[in-house]
């Protein structure tokens, strides 16, 4: 059995695309999840080269070094936590990362900051704000329900964090999206 680590897998569509490419190459795939592929056997160097070429063309990247794999795992855990889990529990992000990656949080935090040029916390906040944007655009939940779903302590805290990151209040963002006046990068 062989495990490959793949950078830039962020959604279920990414999993489907990677699975499809692995199948096209005739690789015996056991499982594909965010950032990680389990193969029944080690691919040949020719298969690895072909896979690397195909994935690079699609915006993915096979990761070889240990530090990059850890960084990608941190990102994938955060993305999964924010976008794909309905979090009923108020767990501490540092505990989740330490438990899942079997490393001290200080090590993970320093490594992430050194390689990514930002902190784990800022990355986590950015992901949460993206999820808030998504939920605002869907217009199915109130701001209070969104705050609750994403484990914000209050609507005010969500609004403040949203404004710090986007420069807009959630209601202004929603209005702009509804009016379709101009893209956010033009505001």
TrEMBL record:
Keyword Aminoacyl-tRNA synthetase on entry: no
Pfam families for this protein: HTH_18
Tagged with keyword Kinase: no
InterPro entries hit by this protein: Homeodomain-like_sf, HTH_AraC, HTH_AraC-typ_CS
SUPFAM superfamilies in the cross-refs: Homeodomain-like
Keywords: DNA-binding, Transcription, Transcription regulation
GO molecular function, one term: sequence-specific DNA binding
Residues in HTH araC/xylS-type domain copies: 97-176
Top-level taxonomic group: Bacteria
Name of the protein in question: AraC-like DNA-binding protein
